[in-house]
TrEMBL record:
CDD domains: NMNAT
Name of this chain's protein: Probable nicotinate-nucleotide adenylyltransferase
GO molecular function: ATP binding; nicotinate-nucleotide adenylyltransferase activity
Residue intervals of the Cytidyltransferase-like domain: 25-212
Gene name of this polypeptide: nadD
Source species: Pandoraea sputorum
GO BP field: NAD+ biosynthetic process
């Protein structure tokens, strides 16, 4: 597994590849990162045959207030990434797991479109770049800042939660689904502009509910089912999410 900052990513450079490079970006508050996030990343690592899976804790999110300090969320992400990298080393060894502090290091509000614009510049025009999200985010994509510009830089790939329905999205957004939907092969073989909705991941984990559980679990020595062991130990050591 590689742990890198946004500045390191920009300067690292990559060897030439005979095929189109495939990069997936899984961002989120990660407060805390849990097995649902990791399952989503693993799903698209396999489905899209990713060369790089980038886990990126959000910085200052305009739509969220009161998140745990960025340093803690980054540390938990790095711990969780180690387990995910070990899993993918067996199931999809060609995928490199990277933890990026790009958004945390950037001053001001953390807009996804800015992140993808920067990543596209780093990756070049030919790489397949995909934003990996849950279906709960997909159906409210039109509330994001400059959301239509996302497709200028990346594909949007969503894992459908149980009970997902396209009908919960706005008519405008449903039209975009119809116009831009691609297969996994279509995403792999093009740089950006598509939407992929995968309904094979039956995982529905709420970080809000997990934090509420952690607030009352200070004397519990066994981690909750949806929390990686190293993340649980970090939470206990740092006394996070205490009621």
């Amino acid at each position: 597994m590689t742990v890198t900052s946004s500045a390191q990513q920009a300067s690292a450079g990559n060897p030439a590849s005979p095929t189109r490079k495939r990069i997936g970006v899984l961002g989120g508050t990660f407060d805390p990162i849990h097995t649902g996030h990791l399952a989503l990343g693993a799903l698209f690592a396999r489905t899209l045959a990713l060369d790089e899976l980038v886990l990126m804790p959000a910085g200052q999110q305009p739509q969220k207030q009161g998140s745990t300090a960025a340093g803690h969320r980054l540390a938990m992400t790095r711990l969780a990434a180690q387990g995910l990298a070990a899993e993918l080393a067996v199931t999809h060894p060609s995928t490199q797991v990277i933890v990026s502090a790009r958004e945390i290091e950037r001053a001001g509000p953390s807009y996804t479109v800015d992140t993808l614009r920067d990543m596209r510049q780093d990756a070049g025009p030919d790489a397949s770049l995909s934003l990996l999200i849950g279906s709960d985010q997909l159906v409210r994509l039109d509330t994001w800042h400059a959301w239509r510009e996302l497709f200028d830089y990346a594909h949007v790939c969503a894992a459908a939660r149980p009970g997902f329905s396209r009908e919960t999205a706005s008519p405008e957004l449903r039209q975009v689904f119809d116009q831009r939907e691609k297969s996994a092969l279509g995403v792999q073989s093009t740089p950006c502009g598509g939407i992929l909705i995968d309904d094979s991941l039956a995982v529905d984990i709420s970080a809000t509910e997990l934090r509420a559980m952690l607030a009352h679990a200070r004397d519990t020595v066994t981690p909750p089912a949806n929390l990686p062991e190293p993340v649980w130990q970090y939470i206990r050591t740092q006394h996070l999410y205490r009621a």
